[in-house]
Amino acid sequence: MRPGSVAVVVLDPDIPLWDLYELGITCTVFGIPQPDLAPTWYDLRLCAARPAASRAAAGFVLRTDHGLDDLVDADTVIVPSVPDECARNGEELPPELLDALRAASERGARVVSLCTGAFALAAAGLLDGRRATSHWMYTDLLARRYPEVLVDDSVLYVDDGDVLTSAGLTAGLDLCLHLVRSDLGAHVANQLARRMVVPAHRPGGQSPFIELPVPETDDDSLAPVLQWATERLDQPLTVDDLAKRAGMSPRTFFRRLRSATGSTPLRWLLHQRLAHARGLLEATTLPVDQVSQRSGLGTAANLRRHFTLHIGVSPTEYRRSFLSPRAGQEESGPRP
Fold it and tell me: How far is CA 186 from the centre of its chain?
């Protein structure tokens, strides 16, 4: 099987160090032949919006003779990222890039984005009506700017056939290995992953990496009761308890909390208990049943159910990924 040509878009003439990671991923996976794994490898080309020298923030220079016209006839087109002012501030992307992406797609190319590269695919109209993802810090922006895109912030990558998108940074590597698996088979992808010292396939999605802070509110009257509740997450708490503490009727408290945080009281409590459980799993070696009790989620089975449903992985898998090297039995916060 011939894996074909891969055109990688180099959009910014001044490449931020943050964006070098995704660019490096594509070059490592698709640009280094592996003759003992596959007789033919990918034909990689870097296609710059302005063919010339691109200077990275670290001071070194990337040179390519390929322009955007050279990506139109590629088998796979990858946009690793877009400049932050385009993703965050809504500055327009070069029309010639969007035209080239559309032309490549119409020709039958597989079009791929890593991290904020999804903004380029969305601007070109290639994500309309499709499920897609991006780095979790940008998914809300992507959804608001392109409401016709079905944005999923919980996954590492989305394979929608001829259009694929990934979350940020290392999730881009997950998607690149997925492409190799699709093109050259599981054995080649697994061996390549071993050489890169990364998992061939990671469980879960990007939900474990999304922060779960206490929702901010401009309603100062709610702040004391919310703080009081977060200090007693291990105790049974009802809407009536919270409303009484706030000096309101349950109906008024429900309405005020919904208006201030966008969440119902019970959903807010679950959100805080999951956040506390995550903190315990990261900072302590407490058994899972004690973590569930101290976070107010009851049994270990209940903790596992909520973790799988809302975080996307089991508590054990989460701890394996995020446990601090200095973690011990000690912990602060609510206690039974």
Answer: 24
